[in-house]
Amino acid sequence: MVRIILTALTVCSIVTAPLTSGAAVLFEGYSKIKAGEDHIGYVISRYEFDDKKKHFISTYFIKTGKGTTETTESLKAVADSELAPISYEYTSLAGKESKTIDAKFRAGAMTALVSTNGKASKIEKKIPKGTFLSTFLVYLMLKSKEGLRSETKYEYQAIAEEDAGIAKGQALVGKEQTYNDFKVFKILNTFKDSKFLSYVNDRGEVIGTSAMGTGISTELVATPAEATNGQSYSAVILKTLFGAVPAGTQNVVAQGKKAKPSTLPATTISAPAAAPSQATQPETEPGQ
User: Fold this and answer.
1) Label partner for 110 (CA 20 to 30 A): which of 63, 86, 162, 174?
2) Measuring CA to CA, which residue among 137, 162, 136 is closest to residue 48?
3) Are 86 and 55 in contact (CB under 8 A)?
4) What is the DSSP string of 50-116?
């Protein structure tokens, strides 16, 4: 499917609920996916910060379609405190088509083991300084010198997790506005020749997205049942990926209140490629 979930995160000082791993949950939520007016799937997303290791962790699970047309994607990505990539594991399954990528980063280079429909291959490449995993884009924007603010342009170079490729991108932040009763920045992002809009509050939480020209959109919702819309999911798969079935309550939509400004963990990023310049994302039944 089209990956339009850019990032959905909040900041470390807002939530301090630790997992068994010792990582603090920064954001956790469910979003519904729509094609036009049709509710076609859902996204479960979590961001964490491991204060002991000084690692950011992004985990998501995406499901669209029903029956033989079902498509699923998942990601577990890890970056250091300066957003330099450490590792990620990506999987996708669309009908009989499957793909897995297991990537590791060391000394400015990436080694990725790829399996496509059971056929194995290996990718090795140098990673230019400042390149990051695309799932952490909003972190980069929040932690940049100017922070996330209106009428700002961010140019960057990121790794697309679904193919281990590196591409240049640009994020244009518009003026603050209201979206679903929340104050947000409207961000136009261009990455891999695709354009999409993200509606992001000042805590970095993505309230909604829209892939331009496709009719595909997402919306962060208050409960799992609103996102899954009757589609079942496997608790076994979710526990394997997340460590537990996410409750999806660590976000402003679920909490039913407006976001307040805050700060990310106190770390320093050294001149990333995306520095800003001035400009004019056992079986159980859903919801239980």
Assistant:
1) 63
2) 136
3) yes
4) ETTTTEEEEEEEEEES-GGG-EEEEEEEEEETT--EEEEEEEEEETTEEEEEEEEEETTEEEEEEEE
Nearest 5°: CA angle at 76, between 94 and 136?
105
User: Which residues are CB-contacts of 190 (< 8 A; sequence separation ≥ 6)?
Assistant: 169, 170, 171
Query: Under a CB-based contact definition with an 8 Å cutoff, are residues 200 and 185 in contact?
Result: yes
pTM for the full predicted model: 0.83
Q: Hey, what are 174's tokens?
A: 């518009």
| Mean pLDDT across the chain | 83
| Tokens encoding 19 | 């997992």
Give the whole-angstrom CA distance, residue 247 versus residue 35.
25
End-to-end CA distance of the chain: 27
- With CA atoms as reference, report the closest residue to 224 among 248, 251, 200: 248
Supply φ then ψ for residue 235, to 5 degrees.
-65, -30
- Residue written as tokens 């159980």? 284
Over residues 99-111, the pLDDT tens digits come to 999 999 999 999 9
- Phi, then psi, of 11 in degrees rounded to 5: -110, 155
The answer to whether 5 and 205 are in contact (CB under 8 A) is: no
pLDDT digits (tens, 9 = 90+) for 145-162: 778 889 999 999 999 999
State the Rg of the chain over Cα: 18
